[in-house]
């Protein structure tokens, strides 16, 4: 692989052997680690003598850069193994050894070195506290080994076609071999060990887990949760045994016993026989039947009533007399076992979390309203019930330039309702009697700009490159950490509890998904110099980004995940998470066509069909409803249905064209923004400006002077020549030609979108898309970068100021809202603005400017009355002799505040004067 990280001096001093030279076969480790190749690490055990088997290694195809490993035992007579894959088979005089390997990267100095660790294929671990085990590996040769308490035993099967099965027993007199256990079957199993001397039995748990190429077989003690239980509630004597197994158990009347399969590899069927009731009766036993204990069911028989039921994670086979059938449980809701003795309730009005990056700037604001939590314990703490309810939940996108201010919101209440009932009497498992989670339909509106900023926030930074070379101790520490691999995995000390769900239900999830990338996401790059942007013009990456914005715009894709329900499920935690992941992945793949049909570049066929379906339903339903009343009503219904169908058709056509044009506009805007950054033009606002800027980017002469007022560095070829010399002429011409094509196309597309949007909203406006943030984004001073307590008034003013282009980069002083007049008075350091507030959703802009006065134009500020402030400012025309005024009428409590706000204004030309005080005369006539 690659060489380890080293300085230039170290690299020059290393003599690299020629690629064609083949290394000699050596014992492990065969290759020194400082060459950066594969490090072969043997297992960490002490070798008793030199005659013990060691592995030799060779590699081939080094000239082609391909490394293939082959192994053999020490000695020239041994044959080479097959090329290493997940496991390799080493042959020696008729014996076969299966060896696994782990290939992973090292740590620190060796992070570019791949370490190959040879491990045994099977590792037996005895986690019992008071018993040693005898393990029978091969029944034909009676090969066995003793596994002491808390000991580990690596094992290699010596036959190529071995079944990989073992049998176990306690290393004590009287214990016999158990049933065969297959080592390639991962999961948890239970084996029954029998003692023929004192007739005792023991249930031992076996966990088989695949970690890399190695199977880990762990033997643990029994628990109070047997897999099966047989209950004989009849007056007969019962004999039970596994199908095709001669070992049997006898149950007397009203006797129970814990049970598991004696031979796990044979059919899991239980044979039940009824023995004669009298001791001197020599008649043959009566066969009751053969039953499967994995399925919950009732089996009607002539002699006894047989039922398989679930008692937690234990399957119970219950036998009763036919005269006393099983009582039917009452219909209705099951009452909890025991009355509650402890009840805890907690109710929070609201909980909110704000996510701020390192700039710092606020990205996400999450709010939960009316959060209720309830916990109940029954008598003796046998059962714990938890209930969580969230009335409403919303996640806001706090990026100011986003097109989707709300990331997630729910349509109904409560947004989240979860109930969990847990049994605490089981110590070895997690017994969850009831789990129910319900989510209301939700709307996801995802902005690609927010995703990029969150990814940049959570991605770990690159490793810091130190100028100083690492010491010998650092290299030794990194080497020791690199060779640990799978051999350094700690022993099995803690046991992960399995989960049992008596009833588990996740309600269906309904979501409406919208995705787009804001066209203003590239504004951050506008501050770069012309030198850096000149290299990026017409790059493949920029073209793909512009095309991606067009192709990935999705609007209201209706997604539906079906419910996930389990009953009587007993699985490990990893298996449960894997099944949940597979379920929701399958549901997501099943709805891929819905996402494709909701792409705006295709016209959003899903929404087109939704609009036309409503018109067709009205066209059919309205005449039918009128036919039931009278012939005249039928005529009116026909006219109404036809008009609604025509309206739906026109709306669908306009919406179809609007969505195609708007998705194309995103990509065109992004491409034109990069060209504007390169050429230095301001962003065009009209179709004619697009044509002028596009033409002036290529044409050099009198026309460019006429269109752009001065050639200067505005023309792409000339600007490229100023920045990059003669080598920049060709990129400049290319940028100008792209602008000549893309800018008029962008202007035409913008006009088409505005026209079709106006006509579409005139027919039927989409008011569901109008959602608001819970609160304005947090304001963080860009000069100090300090987080302060959140101020709703200050944040609201900053949000209003950001929507006004002229005042966006000025310091905020204050603002006053007037609900009666639907107006707002905004005061910044350099201007006073009177804004008109538009609350209806069809307005694209919330605030429009009614009038504004700059601080340099102010002459006198007169506080005439407790409700009136008059601003005297310079006229716009020098020849005008009258002094214009602006009268501000406010309530008495707000007028005085505005008067003090105006006194905090400063002139805009601070660099031209030595004083920063405003040359304005303030008159207070109310004193």
From TrEMBL:
Domain Vacuolar protein sorting-associated protein 13 VPS13 adaptor binding: start-end pairs: 83-266
Domain Intermembrane lipid transfer protein VPS13-like C-terminal: 774-875
GO BP terms in the entry: protein retention in Golgi apparatus; protein targeting to vacuole
Matching InterPro entries: VPS13 (IPR026847), VPS13-like_C (IPR056748), VPS13_VAB (IPR009543)
Signal peptide: none
PANTHER family, sorted: INTERMEMBRANE LIPID TRANSFER PROTEIN VPS13, VACUOLAR PROTEIN SORTING-ASSOCIATED PROTEIN VPS13
Similarity comment: family membership: Belongs to the VPS13 family.
Protein name: Vacuolar protein sorting-associated protein 13 DH-like domain-containing protein
């Amino acid at each position: 692989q690659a060489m380890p990280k080293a300085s230039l001096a170290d690299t020059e001093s290393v003599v690299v052997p020629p690629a064609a030279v083949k290394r000699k076969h050596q014992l492990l480790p065969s290759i020194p680690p400082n060459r950066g190749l594969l490090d072969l690490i043997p297992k960490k055990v002490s070798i008793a003598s030199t005659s013990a088997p060691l592995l030799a290694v060779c590699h081939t195809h080094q000239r082609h850069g391909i490394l293939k490993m082959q192994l053999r035992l020490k000695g020239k007579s041994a044959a080479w193994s097959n090329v290493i894959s997940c496991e390799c088979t080493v042959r020696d005089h008729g014996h076969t050894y299966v060896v696994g390997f782990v290939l992973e990267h090292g740590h620190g100095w060796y992070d570019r070195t791949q370490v190959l660790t040879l491990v045994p294929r099977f590792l037996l671990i005895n986690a019992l506290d008071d018993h040693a085990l005898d393990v029978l590996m091969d029944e034909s040769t009676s090969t066995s080994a003793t596994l002491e308490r808390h000991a580990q035993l690596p094992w290699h099967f010596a036959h190529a076609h071995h079944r990989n099965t073992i049998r176990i027993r306690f290393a004590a007199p009287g214990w016999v071999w158990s049933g065969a256990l297959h080592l390639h079957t991962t999961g948890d199993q239970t084996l029954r060990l029998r003692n023929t001397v004192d007739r005792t039995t023991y249930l031992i748990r076996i966990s088989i887990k695949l970690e890399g190429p190695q199977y880990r077989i762990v033997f643990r003690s029994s628990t109070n949760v047997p897999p099966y239980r047989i209950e004989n509630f009849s007056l007969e004597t019962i004999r039970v045994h596994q199908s095709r197994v001669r070992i049997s158990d006898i149950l007397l009347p009203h006797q129970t016993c814990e049970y598991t399969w004696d031979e796990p590899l044979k059919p899991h069927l239980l044979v039940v026989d009824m023995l004669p009731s009298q001791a001197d009766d020599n008649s043959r036993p009566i066969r009751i039947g053969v039953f499967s204990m994995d399925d919950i069911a009732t089996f009607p028989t002539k002699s006894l009533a047989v039922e398989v039921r679930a008692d937690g994670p234990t399957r119970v086979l219950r036998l009763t007399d036919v005269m006393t059938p099983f009582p039917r449980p009452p219909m209705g809701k099951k009452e909890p076992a025991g009355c509650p003795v402890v009840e805890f309730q907690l109710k929070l009005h609201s909980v909110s979390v704000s996510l701020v990056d390192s700039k710092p700037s606020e990205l996400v604001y999450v709010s939960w309203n009316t959060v209720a939590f309830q916990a109940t314990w029954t008598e003796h703490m046998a059962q714990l019930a938890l209930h969580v309810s969230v009335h409403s939940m919303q996640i806001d996108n706090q990026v100011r330039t986003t097109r989707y201010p709300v990331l997630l919101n729910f349509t109904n209440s409560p947004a989240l309702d979860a109930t969990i009932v847990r049994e605490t009497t089981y110590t070895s498992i997690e017994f969850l009697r009831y789990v129910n989670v319900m989510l209301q339909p939700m709307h996801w509106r995802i902005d690609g700009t927010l995703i990029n900023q969150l990814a940049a926030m959570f991605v770990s930074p690159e490793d810091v490159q130190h100028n100083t070379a690492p010491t010998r101790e650092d290299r030794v520490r990194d080497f020791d950490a690199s060779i640990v691999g799978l051999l350094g995995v700690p022993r099995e000390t803690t046991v992960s509890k399995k989960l049992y769900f008596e009833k588990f239900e996740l309600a269906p999830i309904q979501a409406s998904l919208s995705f787009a990338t804001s066209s203003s996401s590239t504004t951050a790059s506008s501050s770069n110099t012309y030198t850096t942007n000149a290299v990026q013009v017409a790059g493949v990456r920029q073209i793909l980004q512009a095309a991606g914005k067009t192709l990935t715009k999705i609007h209201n894709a209706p997604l539906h995940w079906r419910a996930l329900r389990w009953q009587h499920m007993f699985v490990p935690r990893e298996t449960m998470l894997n099944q949940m992941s597979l379920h929701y992945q399958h549901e997501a793949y099943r709805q891929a066509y819905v996402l494709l049909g909701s792409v705006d570049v295709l016209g959003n066929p899903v929404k087109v069909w939704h609009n036309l379906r409503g018109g067709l339903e009205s066209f059919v339903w309205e005449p039918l409803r009128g036919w039931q009343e009278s012939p005249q009503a039928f005529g009116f219904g026909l006219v109404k249905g036809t008009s609604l169908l025509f309206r739906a058709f026109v709306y669908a056509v306009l919406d179809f064209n609007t969505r195609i044009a708007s998705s194309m506009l995103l990509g065109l805007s992004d491409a034109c923004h990069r060209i504007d950054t390169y050429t230095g033009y301001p962003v065009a606002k009209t179709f004619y400006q697009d044509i002028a800027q596009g033409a002036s980017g290529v044409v050099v002469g009198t026309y460019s002077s006429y269109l752009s007022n001065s050639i200067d560095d505005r023309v792409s070829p000339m600007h490229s020549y100023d920045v990059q010399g003669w080598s920049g002429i060709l990129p400049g011409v290319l940028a100008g030609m792209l602008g000549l094509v893309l800018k008029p196309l962008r202007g035409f597309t913008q006009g088409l979108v505005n026209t079709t949007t106006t006509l579409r909203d005139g027919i039927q406006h989409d008011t569901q898309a109008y959602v608001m943030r819970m609160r304005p984004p947090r304001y963080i001073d860009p000069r100090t970068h300090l987080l302060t307590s959140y101020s709703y008034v200050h944040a609201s003013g900053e949000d209003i100021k950001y929507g006004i282009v002229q005042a966006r980069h000025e310091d905020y002083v204050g603002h006053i809202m007037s609900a009666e007049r639907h107006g707002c008075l905004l005061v910044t350091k350099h201007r006073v603005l009177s804004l008109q507030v538009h609350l209806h959703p069809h307005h694209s802009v919330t605030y429009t400017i009614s009038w504004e006065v700059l601080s340099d134009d102010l002459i006198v500020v007169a506080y005439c009355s407790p409700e009136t402030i008059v601003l005297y400012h310079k006229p716009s025309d020098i020849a005008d002799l009258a002094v214009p005024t602006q009268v501000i009428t406010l309530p008495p409590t707000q007028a005085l505040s505005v008067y003090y706000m105006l006194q905090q204004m400063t002139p805009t030309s601070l660099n031209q004067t030595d004083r920063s005080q405003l040359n304005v005369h303030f008159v207070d006539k109310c004193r």
